[in-house]
Amino acid sequence: MISPIFFRVMFFCVVALAATRAAFAVEVSLRAPGASEDFVEYLESASLSVETSRVEGAVAQDILAAARADYQRLLSALYERGRYSSVISIKVDGREAAGIPPVGGTKTVSRVEILVQTGPAFRFATARVAPLAAGTELPEGFAAGALARSDTIVDAAQAGVDGWRDQGHAKARVSNQLIIANHASSELTADIRLAPGPRLRFGNLKVDPNGRVRPERIRAIAGLPTGEVYSPEALQKSSQRLRRSGAFRSVVLSEAQTPGPDGTLDIMAELVDAKPRRFGVGLELASVEGFSFSAFWMHRNLLGGAERLRFEGEVRGVGGDTDGVDYRLSTRFERPATFTPDTTLFLGAAIEDQDEPEFNERSVLIGAGLSHIFSDELSGEAGIAYRFSDIDDDAGPRTLEQVLFRTSLTYDDRDDPLDAHEGYFGNLEVTPFAAVGDGGSGARLFLDARTYFGFGKDRRHVAAFRGQIGSVLGAGLTEVSPDMLFFSGGADTVRGQPFQSLAVDLGGGNRLGGRSFAAASAEFRTDFNDTWGAVIFTDAGFVGADSFGASSGEFHAGAGFGVRYHTGIGPIRVDFGTPIGDDAGEGFEFYIGIGQAF
Fold first, then answer.
1. What confidence category does residue 16 fall into, taking pLDDT thresholds of 50, 70 and 90?
2. Mean pLDDT for the chain overall
3. Closest Cα to residue 495, out of 384, 580, 578?
């Protein structure tokens, strides 16, 4: 039996705990007489006391520490707004926080009062950085008569140093600075002197020989231009190349402290190897196509030179209404820094079995090629491949043997490929092909272009547009692989229309893909908060029998809405679409995936 004393003790403990928590419910106020509402909000955003008071479970010691830190934080914030004669008072339960011992000074805190006398805004009397390298541009606000913001001074000094570094003076630095505030006239003098140092050339890339990737391959991938004039941009490119290889978890390229006697500057590579093996899985669901499963296994340093080997498998159409299940198994080997630091050699092979509504195709493809990075936004690929296809469609059974010469260019400056708010994307593919057995010769052209316009607060609203156009030249409908022809309908073309529902009608219920294709999509996206968003969209598509769609072809369209749930890896997409036209509203398709539809 539990003693009544136990209940009394527990009761008083609960009361004491509640009282303690109540004592930590701190009221923090910040006043700045004469300042605008925006300025007060700016100071509140800089205050650690305001921030800490909103943290659940903060104790008196936390509040006091935040109040003592706020003198410097608020002073820095005031300097950034050109206020150099401010007076700050921070009282904790009526006592100035600076006079309270940081340890044992108080056990409870109920109120923090912050009073800021902002003082006048200072203007630059003198704003000078010298000497400057030719072509250096200082911040627009760093000029006599302009508001003397402290961050503008810092930016001006950094711009001066960067100007010299861009011209090869890697050890440029600030040698002296004179900052004088005249409180009588509310003016600030900022006179910054630079020491450019000697013009240097790149030395050697120093690499730890004990890493998993061979040092000579690291140097080849980095492509550091040894012997050329030092350039921060070239150093950044070398870092990007090493990261892009995927063989390293961390990449830091730093300059040696002291240049060599011959005017060269060695670069030190601090690299942390990534785990060599990686695997992943994926899942997507559409109302007609059903489930799609994918998985891959990859080795990121197969031969000790950052070579990448990837195996990938995919199963599509599970539980769907697209006649059957599609299978694909592929492998790809990549060797970075082949011929140039930005060129990658690849070898690939794939076997595929497609059981689609309009055709059945079993194919084998073997190929090789080169990919090249032209810039951060532009990349390209060119390759040659042999393809054998065994086909059964409404034109009858047949086999094709062709050699494909595929080239592509991709431009991508989107802010986020999975959830773009601004930028452009374009992909152009040109694939000439030649028959080596049964089949035809010709070329396949395809262009996919997208653009995004974000607007509103934090760009929570986005207008997104996509256009696709394709054509098969030379070969006839039965002389190319069905998956090189064009269909419309489904998640990648026209949502709301059944998968591959638009094709070329041969009569008698027989259909084939078209030799010409066009599609357009428009979406309006809006985010309600950081977690949830919504989309409305409309899509249209065209498929024609000839190469340019001039003599025959048909259109269809769809529209709908969707919801988005934002996660750390991208938004989860759920879209509902219906046809536009005579059968509008008679059927609905839904699509689930990760990332925006385009």
1. very low
2. 91
3. 578
Do residues 279 and 296 lie in contact, with contact meaning Cβ atoms separated by under 8 Å? yes
Model pLDDT for residues 192-222, shown as the tens digit of each residue: 999 999 999 999 999 999 999 999 999 999 9
Q: How many CA atoms lie within 13 A of 353 on its CB side?
A: 8
- DSSP E strands, 422-515: 423-435, 442-455, 461-473, 504-507, 510-512
- In the DSSP assignment, the letter for residue 274 is P
Compute the residue count for the chain. 598
The single-letter code of the amino acid at 142 is F
Contact 415, 421 (CB under 8 A): yes
For residue 298, CA distances in Å to 275, 295, 307, 369 come to: 11, 10, 10, 19
Strand 264-273 to 201-206 pairing: parallel
Q: What is the dihedral of CA 562, 567, 569, 574, to 10 degrees?
A: -20
| Each residue's pLDDT tens digit, 465-523 | 999 999 999 998 899 999 899 999 988 999 999 888 899 988 888 889 999 999 999 99
- Cα–Cα distance, 26 to 108 (Å, whole number): 9
- Positive or negative CA dihedral for 348, 349, 355, 361? positive
Q: Check pLDDT > 50 for residue 3.
A: no
Residue 91 corresponds to which amino acid? Answer: K
pLDDT per residue over 400-428, tens digit each? Answer: 999 999 999 999 999 999 999 999 999 99
What was the pLDDT predicted at 14?
A: 39
Alpha carbons within 13 angstroms on the beta-carbon side of residue 208 total: 11
Give exposure, 289-307, as e/b (b: 16+ Cβ within 10 Å).
bbbbeeebebebbeeebbb
Beta-carbon count within 10 A of 286 CB: 22
Instruction: Find, among 119, 121, 136, 124, the residue nearest to 179 by Cα.
Output: 124
57-60: long-range pairs with CB below 8 Å, 24+ = 57/24, 58/24, 58/26, 59/24, 60/23, 60/24, 60/106, 60/107, 60/108, 60/109
Output the CA angle 206-211-215, nearest 5 degrees: 45
Question: In whole angstroms, what is the distance from residue 288 CA to residue 492 CA?
Answer: 13
- Segment 71-95 shows an average pLDDT of 96
CA distance 193 to 180: 15
Residues pairing with 210 in the sheet: none
| CB < 8 Å & 24+ apart, contacts of 407-414 | 407/380, 407/381, 407/382, 407/383, 407/431, 408/380, 408/381, 408/382, 409/378, 409/379, 409/380, 410/378, 410/379, 410/380, 411/377, 411/378, 412/377, 412/379, 413/376, 413/377, 414/452
Helix axes 150-166, 60-80, angle to 10 degrees: 70
Q: What is the 3-state secondary structure (H, E, C) of 171-196?
A: CCEEEEEEEEEECCCCEEEEEEEEEC
The pTM assigned to this predicted structure is 0.80
Identify whether the C-beta of residue 545 lies closer than 8 Å to the C-beta of residue 515.
Answer: yes
Answer whether residue 326 shows pLDDT above 70.
yes
Question: Would you say 494 and 541 are in contact if contact means Cβ atoms under 8 Å apart?
Answer: yes
Q: What is the mean pLDDT of residues 95-117?
A: 88
CA distance 269 to 241: 13
Cα distance between residue 520 and residue 455, in whole Å: 22
Confidence of residue 2 (pLDDT cuts 50, 70, 90): very low
Give residue 400's identity as a one-letter amino acid code. Answer: L
Q: Which amino acid is at 129?
A: V
Q: What six digits make up the tokens of 24? A: 């930590």
pLDDT at 287: 62
